[in-house]
Each structure stands twice: as structure tokens, then as C-alpha cells.
Design goal:
The structure holds two protein chains of two kinds. By secondary structure, chain A is of the alpha+beta class. Chain A contains seven helices and 13 strands. Chain A has one domain (37-262): Glutamine Phosphoribosylpyrophosphate, subunit 1, domain 1, CATH 3.60.20. Chain B is of the alpha+beta class. The chains are: A alpha+beta, B alpha+beta. At the A-B interface, helix 1, strand 6, helix 2 and strand 13 of A face strand 3 and helix 2 of B. Chain A: This is Proteasome subunit beta.
Amino acid sequence: MFTNAGTSSFTAFLSKVAPEMLPGRRPLPPGMAADLAPHATTIVAIAAAGGVVMAGDRRATMGNLIAQRDIEKVHPADAYSLVGIAGTAGIGIELMRLFQVELEHYEKIEGAMLSLDGKANRLASMIRGNLGAAMQGLAVIPLFAGFDLAASDPTRAGRIFSFDVTGGPYEETGYDAIGSGSLFAKSALKKRFRAGLSVDDAVRLAVEALYDAADDDTATGGPDLTRRIYPVVMAATAEGTHRLTDAETATIAESVVSGRMENPGG
Amino acid sequence: MAMQFYASPEQIMRDRSELARKGIARGRSAVVLSYEGGVLFVAENLSSTLHKVSEIYDRIGFAAVGRYNEFENLRRAGVRMADLNGLSYDRRDVNGLALANAYAQTLGAIFTEQSKPFEVEICVAEVGATPEDDALYRLTYDGSVNDEPGRMAMGGQAESISGVLKAQHRPEMSLSEAVRVAMQALSSVGGEGGASRTIAANQLEVAVLDRRRVGRTFRRITGAALTALLDGDASAGAAPAPGRAQTPTMPTEEANKPITSAGSADLEGQQSEQPEG
């Protein structure tokens, strides 16, 4: 089964040899399943000069309960791109792992990376595969962002793609947010985003936007100073993806919180 | 009606072996050896795109000699198997031995069941924490497996190349020393009248599994970095290979940045626990 000629796509390979490992291929009993599993919430992405920044809060909720305080929803998709997951946490984590393997697999088989648009299209078709489950309440919506190695203008190399349950991708200009707190995060970004931000400014802006989301949305967690749980912040630049250390995000989150002590609205 | 001739199984196996050996001996050679910082692959290869050396998984590399279409098929199979196991279990659960066993089964079945055996010889190399922990498995056309002691040569005139390697190789050597030994071994054969010859940098395919990296450790050394290494510049090996157009390069390593391709960063980054919720 491994030696057949055939595809460079890992999901296409799985659909032949182990279809039960694809989230969209499992038969679901009828009925709504939305309240069965924890939901992961708000992710923001901001395009900066020379890269893109993605940040996510750390809360997963189940109805009115906090299911997890320190979930990580922003991950590297490969060496130059980032993916964040909102929606049903279990399926989201599974899809994200599958997407990571998909990109790495293509790169190893073909000896070259997919283009950024190619990666976004693959993710769109994987999300579309989950449409049946989404209609029963187990929706997963990713946010995808990356550094486009083929971009002619390096200041525009940071690109963001959003999706809906039927697929996508939809390229966003400047910034985007997904998840329950996205309305508030986007409103904050709408007023504060300026084209050509530096990566450091974009990081600060992302943490501010998550604070605004947590301020008005119960399902989004703000910086937790008592437990020292801070948002996950990652950047994709020409040097690749990297995650800010806990110490770095702590410094930024604490300065955002102390700013809000004086002016709660930011 | 055509006469049916009897051929003993012994004769059939001998003929197949001879065919495979001849096919392999025609090709250019490759060497794999452990050094202080990882596992080094050096293959003589006129093409810069049809690779003889490639990445299978985080700590596993693949080198082959013989017919390209046949070992390329095996390489793809290895990548598929490793990725499937890594996704079903965990990235740490993918190891070189399982892959070597799968290759042995495949090659053995092809050798006995099909009319033509694969004319290939392959090496599955897994980099460990120290040179003693490295594993090099040699797989031949008939499916036999050998665990090699930190160095091996494959392809045409492999025995004389092995002789040079055996005399020169030490597991604690640096990358530039290891490349020099590999070059010396490869160029010791094939010259006029059995003399040694020189091999140009653009006819070499060089890659390492870097012991000190987290996540994906495979890295090609091409272009200026390779030329510098062959000229004996010890610092050159530390720089990542340039030339994004030909090979997918990994991001530069700065201050313990996680190498963030695929799920490996989740495992080996600063956060030890991996939430499942």
C-alpha cells in the first residue's frame, strides 16, 4: 500500500489506505452534537511589514464552563506558516496535526515546499471535508497566515487567509480574527491597525485585541496574571516561524494590563 | 508447442542476484558515516535535482544507489509509512529499525516473487544522541539487512571505498574532517588505471542529519557552504545551506528558536505539556 505510485498529498494517501483517520470520513449519528465537546475560541492575525503575527487566547469552553485554561490554539503549520483553530477543540487539533503532516509530507516527497496559496487551498479542502460534522454542530474554522517566499515585495509577504465551514480560502487584507470573540477583536483592530506596522508593534496590537475580546466575550480568556498564563503569540517572517517565549509574552501582557488599569477601554 | 525448460530455484536466484549486482555496480557510489555532530551522507551524483539522499523523518535519512525509479519508489513508501505512523502514534515513535524492517520485507518479496529484482542498495540512517547511538542499516536487493558500524559505502567498487573509510573514519571526527574522509574514499576509485581522481563539488550530493537540532534534523549542504567545507573551512558546516530555489531550506537557527515545521515544535518547544482539549 505504501509503494503504489500516486499522490504527493498525505490526505489523498490516507483516504485510500486509512480513511477512518480523516475526520470528515466518520459516520455521525443524526442530531446536534454542538454541546458535546469543548470549544476553542479567539484567534487574531495581523500582517506586518516583513511578516505576519498570529495570537490566540488560552481558553476552551464547554457551555458555561471553562474546559481548559491553557489550551494552545496557534501552531506552526510548517517552517513559514501559522495556523490557528477555533471551534470544536478535538476535531480542530486533529485537523491541525493532519495539516502539518500534509505540508511536511508534500515537502519531503516533492523536495519543494507548496506555495502559500497552495497551502491555503489544501487547508480549505480539508475543512470542506468536515462539512457534514459542521452541520451537526462540530464546526472547525481555521485561520491561516504565512510568509510568502514568492512575494515580489517583501513588505507584503505576510498574508492572511480565512475560511468558513464550506471551505475557502478568502484572503484578508491587513488583519483578521476568528472565534467567539472575533467581533470585538476585529473592532479593536479596525481602529488601531495601520499598514506597514513593525512585527513588534503587531505583536502588541494582537495582545491588545485579545484583551478587548476577553473584555466583552466570556468565552475568551484574558491574560491570567495570577496563574501566569498568557496568549500564545507566533510570528512568521523571512527567518521562518517563531513563538515568543513565555517571558516575552508575559512582559507584553503585563504592560497591556497596566495600560488598561488607567484606561479600561484601551 | 514451446518446450518448457527446467531451471532450479538456486539457478534462478543466482541469475537474479547477478542482474542486481551488475546494475548496482554500474552506478556511482555513496557513503554514509557518523561524525561528532550527526550523520553525514555523501553521494556522487551528476544531477542536482534527482536526489540519492533524502529526508524520511525527523531523525531518519535515506541514501540509495542503483536505479533511480526503483529507489525513488522505496523512498516515497518510506516517507508515507513514517508520516502515517507519526500521525497515528507520536513523532517519537517513528524509528529507523521499523523502516528498515519494512524495506527488507518489500525488497525480499520483490526479489523472490517478481521476475526482475530491484537493482538498488539503500541505507536507512537514524541519528542518535551520540555517535554510538547512531544506527545505519544497509539493505540490499534481496532484502537482507545489516547494521553497520558507523560507516558504510554502497554502489560500484564499494569494497575498496569501504577499505578507505575503515582506515580513516573515527566517530568523533568533525563535519569538515568527515567530508574530507568521504571525499577521499569516493575518489580513491575510478581513476585511470585504478588511481584516485578528483570529484568536483557540483558532482556531489551532501547532506547531514544534525544531532543537535530539535524536530527535523535533515539538512542539505549545497553551493557555497559545500565548496567552503571541501576547502577545509571548519565553520562553513554550521551555516544552513543557501539556494532556496533548489532545496527547501529550514529557517536559520537563532537562540534556540524551535524548528517549526510540522508538529515537532509542539513536542520540543519550551512548553512541555501538549493540551488535548
